[in-house]
Design a protein that fits this description.
This protein is an alpha+beta fold and 396 residues long. The chain has a domain at 4-122 and 248-394: Thiolase/Chalcone synthase (Peroxisomal Thiolase, Chain A, domain 1, 3-Layer(aba) Sandwich). It has eleven helices and twelve strands. Strand 11 (375-382) and strand 12 (386-394) form a beta hairpin. It is globular. It starts with a strand and ends with a strand.
Length: 396
């Protein structure tokens, strides 16, 4: 088997719910990054892309069911380039990269364009079909922006609580204070703002046509623990989770270009990192925030390293509390928490579900390259009790 490498990564700025990207269809967002990542490698003949694999959590509206194929066509790639969409909710685009890397390792592909997209703003309302003809009553439209919908009554009630309530249960289990969550959230905003000021994201983020948005829309440079501490809890009257210490609803897209070692000639650029380990983990649905712990442990074992070897980590910040409990578990195994999300995380940058895995993987590769780190980990929690992780090895 050959190895799979990361060659390049791009994303759009992430917009807030109802914000600057609200007028842009998700398939157009996806086409933006597909087109951009190909154009950034002018030596790459687009016809030599073996597959486009994109993640998408909703797919109920303008995502058009197979957004990868739609985006490939809209981006102007040859009609001979196939496209496949994957749905592992928040982990969809990291799953897409894992799928693409396996295709390369088995020899089924040489160049695979992966990534993902989500417009949580434009996710439609859906109506269930009636179980019998001509019902006399009303039907309720259900939002597809986030969370469970049209729940099967056979599901145990403890599994189907809101994502926020799931994380309040983590607060109870691990006794994570409100102040600690707010401190973590303030750090995310400060680091994200500084990263933009330092130019870190300049070559990772590409503009969306017709949209006046050059930076991630959710970053609050003035966020502080004191200011966040004044926000009211969102899920329990006496709870600790607020809009300030959880990721916002977001819109955006990301792309990661993968290839074999031999593909460097085809792509016309050197690889930046090797995919050294991958893993998924699942547990009780309501404990989804803790799933990255074992996913990362498995991926590290498959790469043949431990936490003490890791120089950079990108963990998607769905909620401050779930991030903190993961970091606490990894710190006990040797991780330095200061190497985690050093350019900000989803609490500040945003969390467009289908795009976040591609964002963390692309950011990780650049952080490793700039810092000269040999090993890095990208990890993400996923609603309904799953987590994914990928280990990268730097090529410098």
């Amino acid at each position: 088997m050959t190895s799979a490498f990361v060659y390049d990564a791009v994303r759009t700025p992430f917009g807030r719910f109802g914000g600057a990207l609200a007028g842009t269809r998700p398939d157009d967002l996806a086409a933006t990054v597909v087109r951009a990542v190909v154009e950034r490698s002018p030596d790459l003949d687009p016809a030599l892309v073996d597959e486009v694999v994109l993640g998408n959590a909703n797919g109920a509206g303008e995502d058009n069911r197979n957004v990868a194929r739609m985006a490939t066509l809209l981006a102007g790639l040859p009609t001979s380039v196939p496209g496949s969409s994957v749905n592992r909710l928040c982990g969809s685009s990291l799953d897409a990269a894992m799928t693409g890397s396996r295709q390369i390792e088995t020899g089924d592909a040489d160049v695979v364009l992966t990534g993902g997209v989500e417009s949580m703003t434009r996710a439609p309302w859906v109506l269930p079909k009636p179980s019998r003809a001509f019902p006399a009553g009303n039907l309720e439209a259900v939002s597809t922006s986030l969370g469970w919908r049209l729940v099967n009554p056979e599901m145990p009630a403890e599994w189907t609580v809101s994502l926020g309530e799931c994380n309040e249960q983590l607060v109870d289990e691990f006794r994570v204070s409100r102040e600690r969550q707010d401190e973590f959230a303030a750090r995310s905003h400060a680091l994200a703002h500084q990263a933009w000021e330092d130019g870190f994201y300049d070559d990772l983020v590409v503009p969306v046509a017709g949209v006046d948005l050059t930076r991630d829309e959710g970053i609050r440079p003035d966020a502080s623990t004191a200011a966040l501490g004044r926000l009211r809890p969102s899920f329990r009257k006496d709870g600790t989770i607020t809009p300030g210490n959880a990721s916002p609803l977001s819109d955006g897209a990301a792309a990661v270009l993968l290839g074999s070692e031999a593909a460097a000639t085809t792509i016309g650029r050197d690889p930046v990192a090797r995919v050294a380990g991958r893993a998924a983990h699942a547990l009780d649905p309501q404990r989804f925030g803790y799933a990255p712990v074992q996913a990362a442990e498995k991926a590290l074992a498959r790469a043949g390293i431990g936490w003490h070897d890791v120089g950079a980590v990108e963990l998607n910040e769905a909620f401050a509390v779930q991030s903190l409990v993961c970091l606490d578990a990894w710190r006990a195994s040797g991780l330095d928490p200061e190497v985690v999300n050093t350019r900000g995380g989803a609490i500040a940058l945003g969390h467009p579900l289908g795009a976040s895995g591609g964002r963390v993987l692309g950011t990780l590769a650049k952080v490793m390259r700039e810092g000269g780190h040999r090993w890095g980990v990208a990890a993400i929690c996923i609603g309904v009790g799953q987590g994914l992780a990928v280990v990268l090895e730097g090529t410098a």
